[in-house]
Design goal:
heterodimer; A: alpha/beta; seven-stranded mixed β-sheet; five-stranded mixed β-sheet; 26 helices; 31% helix; B: alpha/beta; Glutaredoxin; Rossmann fold; 5 domains; 15 strands; 44% helix; 13% strand
C-alpha cells in the first residue's frame, strides 16, 4: 500500500491562498482538513457514501458560478478554493438558521449537550439571533429498543445512521420515512428495531436524535473522565473509550476514531460493561470452611493459599500441580502466572482454554511466521480474503467490519468456505458450502488435489483456486475449525499462491492470543519456544530462578480430567471456568485437595474453590493485551470498584507469601509496565515500539520462531474449541452483562 | 398473502420486466393498492419477499410517494387540486364545497367509507381548471353544481362521465399555431396504430433505420435546434452525443413523462392522443445513441394515459415497430411504461432514475451525469415526452426544415398550456419565438371580463413571474432568460388585476414545501419556513420584517440547494416580492387585492 501511495499523482490546489499538495482524487473537504482548515459538515462522514445533503461545506471555487460542496468536489490541479469568504460565511450562517428552525433547542436536557456537533457549529458559524417565529414541527420521542431511542425533532437528517447501518453494518435496520420537512428516520419493524444492536447509529449521530437507553439522562459529558482501553469481550481488540463518572463506567464508545477499529464497536464493546457493577460480583476474598465459602481478609486469604500450596509441595508430588490461565487477563498477568507455575512450582502443567490454534499457525509457518501474520488494517486493505470456517459477524465483529469495509472501499473480494450459512455470505464473491467437519478435506484438496470430494465441490474449489491465483495479495482468515495438521494444509495451499499471503487465526476472548504468546501452554515457553529447548529454558531460569522441566505438561482438558480423577492434587485457576468448559458434568472438583481461583463471579469453578480471590476486570486495570491478529495494545484502568484486586496484585502478594515459605522467588515488579519491560526483553516478538503503544496504537508482534528439530505439528481433536459466542453472549462474562441478556435479539439467537 | 389471480400475474410480470428487480417496487405498490385500497403490513412483507428487499426498504419508498398510503381512503378518493391554475379558477372554493358536501375535512374519510377527500397538488389538468380526480378519473371545468352531481352519481354506485380527453387540447386552430406534433389531435381514433400509420406514422422510423446512420440521426436532431421541452432547454442532439460510444454497459433511454410542473399539461394529451408518435420518437432516439431498452416514466396520476400507452406499445410490438429486428434492420428495441406514485421531485432526471430503480425520489450527485452514469449505473439519456415526440417530425421533414419553424437557436414548435385568467385556456402548438403578448391576446383570447392582465407565469410555477409590462417579448428560451424568467415546461399561467400576489406567493410555496424531498437542509427547512411565514402573513399576522425575510430566506436557498427544486421555490417568490412588494405592504395596512383583512383573519 505504502508503495502505491508514494507513486500516486499529486495535484496542487490553492486553499485560502496557500498552495496545498494532495494526492489526485482527494476530496476538497479532506484537502482542507489536511492543512488544518475546518470546512464544517454534518452529512459528510469518512468511509460512508457521499450525500451533499447538509450543504454546510459550501465553499467558493474560482471559475465556478455557484458555491460548491467541498464533500463532493475532487481537488484538481490549479483549483483555487476559498473557505472563509463572506459568501461562504453567510451560506454557513444561514444554513444553520434553516437547520435550527425545527430543532427543539432543548440543549439543557439533551444528552448531547456539550458534545453536540450542531451546538459547536452554531457556536462557531451561527447567527446570534433567530428570525424563526413559526410553530415547530413536533413528534413524540420513540423507544426503538432498550438501547436506542429516537427523538425526531432533534434529528437534522444527515443520514449518517442510515448509512452506517446499511453500508457499514450491512444490517439495514434504519430507513427514511415521510418526505420534506416531515422526513424522519424509521426503524425496520414498524415501531421498533430488530438488529445487531451495535449502537453505531447512536454514536454517529451528530446531535441528540439517537440516544442510548443505558446512558440517557444519567449525566453530562463534562462530568465524566474518558479512558480509552481495549474491549474485554471478543478477541478482536477494539479500542473502547469508557466514559467514567466517580469511578463508575457510564458508557462506552469510540467517537474519536482512534484504534484499529476506528469508530466501530459491536453491542458488547459499546454496552457490555455493566458486569462491572453486577450485584453478584465477588468483592472480597473467600475461603472455604466446611462446605461454605466465607469472606476473609486479604492477609488471611493469601496466607491460607500459600500454606495450602506448601502443604501439597511438602506431600512430595511434583506433578500434583495444575495451572489454568486466562484468555481475558493481561499479558503481564499471564506471564507471571506461568512463571509461578514453572519457576516456583516446577511444572509445565499450565494451559488455558484454547479457542484458536495460534501455536499451530506459528509452528507451521516456522521462520516465515514473522512476515505472514495479518493485521486488522491489512485485512481491511486486502484485495482478496479467504475465510475458512467461523462466523465473524457473530464471533469476530471487527473482522467482519474490516472485510465489509474492504469490499466497500477497495472492491475487495471475499471467498468463503463454511459449513454454515453465515451472514457474510451475501457479501461474498464466492461461497462454498462444505459438510460440517469437511473444511480440512477441502483444504487438503486445495493444497494437494487429494481426497475424495463430491464433483460439485471440486468444481467450486477449482474456481476458487483459479480466482485466488489472480490476486496479488490474499488474506487467509480461519476459525477453530482449522487446527493442528489442517493448518499445514492451509499454509501449504497459501504458499502455492503467487500473491503475498498472510494469515489470521480467529480466537474468542480478549487475550487468547496473549495467553498463547505468554507461554500459558504446556509445551511452550513465552514466545512459543519448545520446553525441551534447553537454551530457551536456561534464559528463563536465569531470569526467574528455579528449574523449568523439559517435559511438556498436561493440557487444560487433561488437567481437569486429572483433577476430577484424583491424579492432580492442586489446581490453580486464574480467570477461567475450566470445570464448566472441560469437566465431566456433575463431577465438580472431584478428588482435588486444593482449588484456588481468581474470579469476578462465583462461576461453576469458583463455587467449588477452597480460596477465591476477588479479581478486577480488564476495565479496572493497566497492562497490555494482544488481539487475535497479534497486535499489542494498552489497557488503561478506567473504573474502580471497592474490593477486587488485579491478578497482577494477587500473584505478586502470593509470590511474597510463598517466598516466605521457601517456595520460589518473590515478584519484585512494582507495576504491570515493569513486567512488560521484562517481556519485551525475554520475548523478542514483544520488543515493539513503545511510542506506538503509548499513543494508543496497536503494535504488531513479529513472531521469531525456530522449530528446533520438531517434526509435523498436530493437536488432539477437541483441544481447540470455539466458544461459539454470538453477538450477544460472551462466555462466562456475558452472563453477567444484564443489558445484553435482556435484549430480545439475544433470546432469538440459537 | 392471498392475491387475486390478476394481481399475482401482474406481480409476476413486473418482477421480470426490469433489468433490476427492485424497479418493480413502485408499480407493485400502486397495483396492490388499487386492489386492496391500502398497503397493509402483509403486503409490505409480501413485496419485500418477492423483490428480495428488507421491509424497511419498502417502507422508505412507499412513505415518500404521496399517492401511496398505509391507511385506507374511501372507496371514492376525491382529490381536489388547489394549485395555482385551479386556485385562479375557483379551486379553493371547490374544496370548501367538497368539505361541506361530503361533511369531512381534508384527508378524512366519510363514516360509511364511501368517500374521502384530499387537497392535492397540480394534477395536470390546468387547462381544465378547476379540476379534481376521483381515484384515477379526471373531472375538469368543475362548478359546484357539477361537483354535486358527480358526488350524487358516485354515491348511487354509478360512474359519472369523466373527462375523456384533456380539456383544452382540442380546439379550433389559430392561424398563429403551427401544428407539428399535435397535428393528429382531433383525428378520430388518433391513438390507434392504423390511424397513425395513415397519417405519416412510422415513416420517420423507416427513414432513420434504413437510410440514416446513427450519427446522422444525431446530426439531424442537432440541426433541428431541438431543445429539451421539460424545462431546462438543453440541446437534445448534444445530450445524445454525450453518451460514450465505447461503453461496454447497456445504454438506456428514459422518457420523462412525470409531468408535474404546476401549469403544465402537455405531455398528457401528447400521450393520450398520439402515443405512437412518442414510441416512434423513442425508437429513433434509441437507435441514435445505441440504446436497446427504454422506459416511459409516467406520473402516477395519469393512470389512464399509462393504459393508453400500454395498448399502443402492444400494437407497436405486434406490428414490428418494437422488439427484435425492427423493420428487418436488425435493430432491437424494447419499451415499457413505468408508473410514478406522486412526487414532483421525480421530474428531476436523477431523482426520476432513483425512482425508476424503486427508491425514494432523491436526486443524485452530479457529476457524473446520466449520459455516463445513469439508470443502474449505465449510460442513460433522459428526455421529456414532448422532446421525444418531436423527433419523428424532425426526421421526417429534416432538421433544418424543423429548425426553420422557430428562431435561431430555438428550433421548431413548442406546446404551450395556458391556464388561469384567459378566455380560452388550452394547449397550443406555436412556433418558438412567437410574441407572448400577441399569443395571450390573439391566440388565447385575452383576459375575461375585459380585466387587465397583472402577471404571467411563463412556463410553470418555478419560473419568475412577469408583470404586464414585461410580456411583449418573443417566447423562446433565450428571450425569456433575458427577461429574467424561463420558458420552462410551457405551462403558462395568467393572472388578472384582481389576483392577490401574496396569495400566489403563499400557494406556490405550499407546493414546493409539499414536494421538497427532504434531502438537503435549505430546501427542506426553507420551503417549510417560508410556507408558514407566508400563511401567517397572508392571514393578516404579518410584520414589516417578514417582507424582507421572505426575500432573504428565498435568496438563502437560491443556488445552495442540492437540486433545482430549491431554486424553483425561491425564484418565483423573489420575483413576486420584488415586483409586487406594494401588495405585501398593503397587507400590513389591512388591504388585500381581493379580500379585506377581516376576511383574511376569518380565513385563519
Amino acid at each position: 500500500m505504502a508503495d502505491q501511495k508514494t507513486e500516486q499523482k499529486l495535484v496542487t490546489l490553492k486553499i485560502n491562498g496557500a498552495d496545498t499538495q494532495v494526492p489526485a482524487g482527494t476530496l476538497v473537504i479532506e484537502a482542507t482538513r489536511r492543512i488544518g482548515t475546518e470546512v464544517p459538515s454534518f452529512c459528510y462522514y469518512p468511509g460512508l457514501s457521499l450525500q451533499a445533503a447538509c450543504r454546510m461545506c459550501l465553499i467558493e471555487v474560482e471559475k465556478m458560478p455557484k458555491l460548491q460542496t467541498a464533500c463532493t468536489l475532487v481537488a484538481t490541479e490549479g483549483m483555487v478554493v476559498k473557505t472563509d469568504s463572506e459568501q461562504v460565511r453567510n451560506a454557513r450562517k444561514y444554513m444553520l438558521e434553516f437547520l435550527l428552525t425545527n430543532h427543539p433547542l432543548d440543549c439543557p436536557v439533551c444528552d448531547k449537550g456539550g458534545e453536540c456537533e450542531l451546538q459547536d457549529m452554531v457556536f462557531r458559524y451561527g447567527a446570534d439571533t433567530s428570525r424563526f417565529v413559526e410553530e415547530k414541527i413536533h413528534r413524540p420521542e420513540e423507544k426503538w429498543s432498550d438501547l436506542v431511542y429516537y427523538d425526531a425533532p432533534r434529528c437534522i437528517l444527515c443520514f449518517r445512521c442510515v448509512r452506517v447501518c446499511d453500508e457499514g453494518m450491512d444490517v439495514k435496520a434504519l430507513g427514511v420515512g415521510m418526505r420534506g420537512a416531515h422526513s424522519i428516520i424509521i426503524p425496520n419493524r414498524e415501531d421498533h428495531l430488530e438488529c445487531e444492536e451495535c449502537g453505531m447509529c447512536i454514536d454517529i449521530c451528530p446531535v441528540g436524535a439517537l440516544t442510548s437507553g443505558t446512558y440517557r439522562y444519567k449525566t453530562r459529558p463534562w462530568e465524566m473522565q474518558y479512558h480509552s482501553t481495549i474491549c474485554t469481550h471478543c478477541s478482536n481488540g477494539c479500542k473502547t473509550t469508557l466514559s467514567v463518572r466517580n469511578h463508575e463506567i457510564m458508557r462506552a464508545n469510540n467517537r474519536d476514531m482512534s484504534g484499529i477499529n476506528k469508530d466501530f464497536l459491536c453491542v458488547k464493546g459499546r454496552f457490555g460493561f455493566d458486569f462491572t457493577q453486577h450485584p453478584e460480583r465477588v468483592r472480597q476474598p473467600l475461603v472455604r470452611k466446611g462446605d461454605k465459602l466465607y469472606p476473609v481478609s486479604w492477609e488471611e486469604a493469601a496466607q491460607t493459599a500459600a500454606a495450602k500450596l506448601k502443604a501439597v509441595v511438602d506431600a512430595g508430588n511434583k506433578d500434583a500441580f495444575g495451572f489454568i490461565g486466562s484468555n481475558r487477563t493481561s499479558n503481564e498477568e499471564n506471564y507471571l502466572f506461568q512463571r509461578m507455575a514453572r519457576a516456583t512450582f516446577g511444572t509445565n502443567n499450565i494451559d488455558h482454554h484454547r479457542t484458536a490454534d495460534f501455536t499451530g499457525l506459528v509452528t507451521t509457518l516456522g521462520d516465515r511466521a514473522g512476515d505472514a501474520m495479518l493485521t486488522m488494517e491489512q485485512l481491511y486493505q486486502s484485495k482478496a480474503v479467504l475465510l475458512v470456517g467461523n462466523d465473524p459477524t457473530n464471533q469476530n465483529p471487527l473482522v467482519a467490519w474490516q472485510i465489509r469495509s474492504g469490499i466497500r472501499h477497495f472492491a475487495s473480494k471475499l471467498f468463503v468456505i463454511n459449513s454454515a450459512e453465515i451472514k457474510l455470505e451475501r457479501k461474498a464473491t464466492q461461497y462454498i458450502k462444505v459438510a460440517p467437519g469437511q473444511e480440512a478435506a477441502a483444504l487438503r484438496w486445495m493444497a494437494h488435489e487429494e481426497g475424495q470430494l463430491g464433483h460439485e465441490l471440486v468444481e467450486q474449489l477449482v474456481a476458487l483456486k483459479a480466482a485466488l491465483e489472480q490476486e496479488s495479495e490474499v488474506a487467509i482468515v480461519f476459525g477453530a475449525e482449522i487446527s493442528g495438521a489442517a493448518i499445514a494444509l492451509l499454509t501449504a495451499f497459501g504458499s502455492k499462491l503467487p500473491g503475498q499471503v498472510r494469515y489470521m487465526a480467529l480466537a474468542d476472548y480478549a487475550n487468547s492470543r496473549g495467553a498463547a504468546d505468554m507461554g500459558v501452554l504446556p509445551d511452550r515457553l513465552p514466545g512459543y519456544a519448545y520446553v525441551d529447548n534447553a537454551g530457551a529454558r536456561e534464559a528463563f531460569e536465569k531470569l526467574w530462578g528455579g528449574v523449568i522441566p523439559s517435559q511438556a505438561g498436561m493440557t487444560a482438558p487433561q488437567m481437569v480430567e486429572a483433577a476430577q480423577s484424583g491424579k492432580l492434587k492442586a489446581l490453580y485457576v486464574m480467570g477461567a471456568n475450566p470445570l464448566a468448559h472441560f469437566g465431566t458434568l456433575g463431577f465438580g472438583r472431584g478428588k482435588l485437595d486444593l482449588l484456588i481461583v481468581h474470579e469476578m463471579f462465583l462461576t461453576e469453578t469458583a463455587n467449588q474453590a477452597d480460596i477465591v480471590f476477588a479479581a478486577a476486570s480488564a476495565y479496572e486495570k493497566d497492562g497490555t493485551v494482544t488481539n487475535t491478529s497479534g497486535e499489542i495494545q494498552l489497557l488503561h484502568k478506567a473504573a474502580e470498584i471497592m474490593g477486587p484486586r488485579t491478578d497482577f496484585d494477587l500473584l505478586r502478594i502470593l509470590s511474597h507469601q510463598l517466598e516466605k515459605l521457601g517456595l520460589g522467588k518473590a515478584f519484585h515488579y512494582k507495576t504491570p509496565s515493569a513486567v512488560f519491560e521484562e517481556i519485551r526483553k525475554a520475548v523478542p516478538s514483544y520488543n515493539v515500539q513503545a511510542a506506538g503503544l503509548l499513543t494508543g496504537g496497536a503494535e504488531p508482534t513479529r513472531v521469531q520462531f525456530s522449530r528446533n528439530g520438531h517434526g509435523a505439528y498436530d493437536v488432539p481433536a477437541g483441544l481447540i474449541r470455539s466458544a461459539q459466542d454470538t453477538l450477544f453472549t460472551s462466555g462466562t462474562l456475558g452472563r453477567f452483562c444484564t443489558m445484553m441478556e435482556s435484549l430480545p435479539e439475544a433470546e432469538a439467537q440459537p | 398473502m392471498e392475491l387475486s389471480a390478476q394481481l399475482a400475474a401482474k406481480f409476476e410480470k413486473l418482477q421480470t420486466s426490469y433489468p433490476v428487480k427492485r424497479s418493480a417496487l413502485i408499480p407493485m405498490l400502486m397495483y396492490a393498492q388499487d386492489e386492496f385500497g391500502v398497503i397493509s403490513d402483509e403486503m409490505v412483507t409480501e413485496i419485500a419477499r418477492r423483490l428480495n428487499l428488507h421491509e424497511v426498504q419498502v417502507e422508505e419508498t412507499l412513505a415518500y410517494y404521496s399517492m401511496l398510503h398505509r391507511k385506507p381512503w374511501g372507496k371514492n378518493h376525491v382529490q381536489v387540486c388547489t394549485n395555482v391554475a385551479c386556485m385562479l379558477r375557483g379551486g379553493n372554493e371547490l374544496l370548501d364545497r367538497a368539505k361541506k358536501r361530503l361533511n369531512i375535512g381534508n384527508k378524512e374519510v366519510t363514516s360509511d367509507g364511501i368517500f374521502s377527500l384530499e387537497e392535492v397538488e397540480c394534477i395536470g389538468a390546468c387547462t381544465g381548471a378547476p379540476a379534481m380526480q376521483v381515484n384515477y378519473d379526471f373531472y375538469e371545468n368543475l362548478t359546484p353544481l357539477r361537483f354535486d352531481r358527480i358526488i350524487e352519481t358516485l354515491d348511487a354506485g354509478r360512474k359519472p362521465d369523466h373527462e375523456p380527453v384533456t380539456s383544452g387540447a382540442l380546439h379550433p386552430r389559430s392561424p398563429l399555431e403551427i401544428p407539428v406534433i399535435s397535428k393528429r389531435w382531433g383525428i378520430p381514433n388518433s391513438r390507434k396504430i392504423d390511424t397513425y400509420i395513415q397519417n405519416e406514422g412510422y415513416q420517420a422510423l423507416e427513414k432513420a433505420l434504413k437510410e440514416m446512420a446513427p450519427e446522422q440521426i444525431i446530426e439531424d436532431v442537432k440541426k433541428s435546434g431541438l431543445r429539451g421541452r421539460g424545462g431546462a432547454g438543453f440541446p437534445t442532439g448534444m445530450k445524445w452525443s454525450f453518451v460514450p460510444k465505447d461503453s461496454p454497459k447497456p445504454k438506456y433511454l428514459i422518457c420523462n413523462a412525470d409531468e408535474s410542473e404546476p401549469g403544465s399539461c402537455k405531455d398528457r394529451p401528447l400521450m393520450e392522443l398520439d402515443p405512437h408518435q412518442l414510441i416512434e420518437g423513442m425508437v429513433i432516439a434509441g437507435r441514435a445513441f445505441g440504446a436497446h431498452e427504454g422506459f416511459i416514466y409516467i406520473r402516477g396520476e395519469y393512470r389512464y394515459v399509462l393504459d393508453i400507452m400500454d395498448i399502443a406499445l402492444a400494437e407497436a410490438y405486434e406490428r414490428g415497430y418494437l422488439g427484435k429486428n425492427i423493420l428487418g434492420t436488425g435493430f432491437d428495441f424494447d419499451l415499457i411504461t413505468h408508473t410514478g406514485a406522486g412526487a414532483y421531485e421525480c421530474g428531476e432526471e436523477s431523482a426520476l432514475m432513483e425512482s425508476l430503480e424503486g427508491k425514494r425520489g432523491n436526486p443524485r450527485i452530479k457529476p457524473p451525469f446520466p449520459a455516463v452514469v445513469g439508470l443502474y449505473g449505465c449510460p442513460t439519456v433522459i428526455n421529456n415526452a414532448e422532446t421525444l415526440s418531436s423527433v419523428p417530425a424532425i426526421i421526417r421533414m429534416g432538421g433544418e426544415a424543423y429548425a426553420a419553424l422557430g428562431t435561431s437557436k430555438n428550433g421548431g414548435t413548442r406546446m404551450l398550456c395556458v391556464s388561469g385568467h384567459v378566455v380560452k385556456p388550452g394547449i397550443y402548438e406555436v412556433p418558438l419565438g412567437l410574441n407572448m403578448k400577441k399569443f395571450i391576446y390573439e391566440v388565447v383570447g385575452g383576459i375575461p371580463g375585459g380585466k387587465k392582465l397583472k402577471a404571467v407565469i411563463p412556463g410553470g410555477s418555478s419560473c419568475p413571474f412577469l408583470t404586464a409590462d414585461e410580456i411583449d417579448i418573443p417566447m423562446d428560451f433565450d428571450s425569456l432568460a433575458k427577461a429574467g424568467s424561463m420558458l420552462g415546461s410551457g405551462g403558462m399561467v395568467v393572472m388578472d388585476e384582481d389576483t392577490c400576489m401574496v396569495d400566489m406567493a403563499r400557494r406556490v410555496m405550499h407546493f414546493y414545501a409539499h414536494e421538497s424531498c427532504g434531502w438537503c437542509i435549505p430546501c427542506r427547512e426553507g420551503t417549510s419556513w417560508l410556507m408558514k411565514m407566508l400563511d401567517r402573513f397572508h392571514a393578516g399576522y404579518g410584520t414589516a420584517a417578514d417582507i424582507t425575510n421572505v426575500l432573504e430566506l428565498s435568496k438563502n436557498m437560491l443556488g445552495r440547494t442540492f437540486c433545482a427544486l430549491g431554486d424553483a421555490a425561491a425564484m418565483p417568490t423573489i420575483s413576486i416580492v420584488e415586483k409586487w412588494r406594494n401588495e405585501f405592504e398593503d397587507h400590513l395596512q389591512g388591504r388585500c387585492a381581493y379580500k379585506n383583512v377581516d376576511a383574511l383573519l376569518g380565513a385563519r
